[in-house]
Amino acid sequence: xxxxxxxxxxxxxxxxxxxxxxxxxxxxxxxxxxxxxxxxxxxxxxxxxxxxxxxxxxxxxxxxxxxxxxxxxxxxxxxxxxxxxxxxxxxxxxxxxxxxxxxxxxxxxxxxxxxxxxxxxxxxxxxxxxxxxxxxxxxxxxxxxxxxxxxxxxxxxxxxxxxxxxxxxxxxxxxxxxxxxxxxxxxxxxxxxxxxxxxxxxxxxxxxxxxxxxxxxxxxxxxxxxxxxxxxxxxxxxxxxxxxxxxxxxxxxxx
Amino acid sequence: xxxxxxxxxxxxxxxxxxxxxxxxxxxxxxxxxxxxxxxxxxxxxxxxxxxxxxxxxxxxxxxxxxxxxxxxxxxxxxxxxxxxxxxxxxxxxxxxxxxxxxxxxxxxxxxxxxxxxxxxxxxxxxxxxxxxxxxxxxxxxxxxxxxxxxxxxxxxxxxxxxxxxxxxxxxxxxxxxxxxxxxxxxxxxxxxxxxxxxxxxxxxx
Lengths: 255, 205
Fold this sequence. Notes:
The structure holds 2 protein chains of 2 kinds.
Chain A: H1 6-27, H2 33-46, H3 48-54, H4 62-80, H5 83-86, H6 90-116, H7 123-153, H8 161-188, H9 191-198, H10 202-209, H11 244-250
Chain B: H1 3-22, H2 29-45, E1 50-51, H3 54-76, H4 82-108, H5 115-143, H6 156-188, H7 193-196, E2 200-201
Antiparallel strand pairs in B: 1-2
């Protein structure tokens, strides 16, 4: 069992405050099932990083945990206290924060693919382009989902065309922020160093490497005490034009 | 210049000319990208015969031919779903051109993408193009006096109708590109991954 650290405390604090607000809403006069469910579900989602860490799935970096908690908290706060209706620009803030969070998740996922999938090599120069395109596609799917829900259920998630366009502009701006940040980050850091810190579960590494679908088998932890060749730095003497990821894949620690 | 590249160029120029003649400036985006994508290998390598894999260029020719036929048919027949069909065809063309862009980047840089990532790149590229159509639509709606702001709406029905007008390019593209991605991914499985990722002499690989 891992020790409770600062990131766990942040998650528990956010979940606790949201549950308290939900209880206060439940005893208040303006309670609705939508509000209460939003409060409870968001509080549970706040705990996911703790679950991931203690179940050994992965250890999310503090910056991402803060963004995840902020995204969920700001949304739930807006629903429970009617901020979406009372403050004109509240939706703008939630969209921007949420898109930054999603863009970070995309960035981290691309770095994992870059490291573990031998067939795929994005290079630091092109990863930002993929972040921008994938996040824009996510934001389109989100707006289309809102349209479908409005059409099928008769509720009003999309207030007006102006509201939709403002959402798209916020999403684009947030994608741009992370894209530019990723470019600068990759100038000074490597994917290997970052992914190592995530402490990914071996089955997750296998999934990303697609070794079960005809790709090259990727060495992962087989038993306690057996070193993972993914985590072994590249030995001296291996040089050439191949990517660092390819070099790591080629390295056999038994040699 | 190889035959398939020439066919794409002629079709793209024809679509651009017809779109300009009709004043449909949104439809200029795809043919302009098509011309740039087909010319890119020739310009980059200095070899006028350089093109893409013939399967890939075959995929691009189909929606361009369909678009030409649709524009011509639209001149004679009043077709209720003309705009929706035109968006679906343009999304298909955008995806095909997106795959070519991915292959071009693959061939000319250190980037290395397998088939599934080429298709995913194309999907995201097509979706991003639809955002341009959406921004163009909001400009058109604003300039023609449609209600746009939250305070402009007195009832939900009006809101839904105007929202649907704005969202149509993104909605059609989002749904159709998923279908195209599945089809293209299956179709391109018969192409050798290495050949797909190269610029082909004469486009006949």
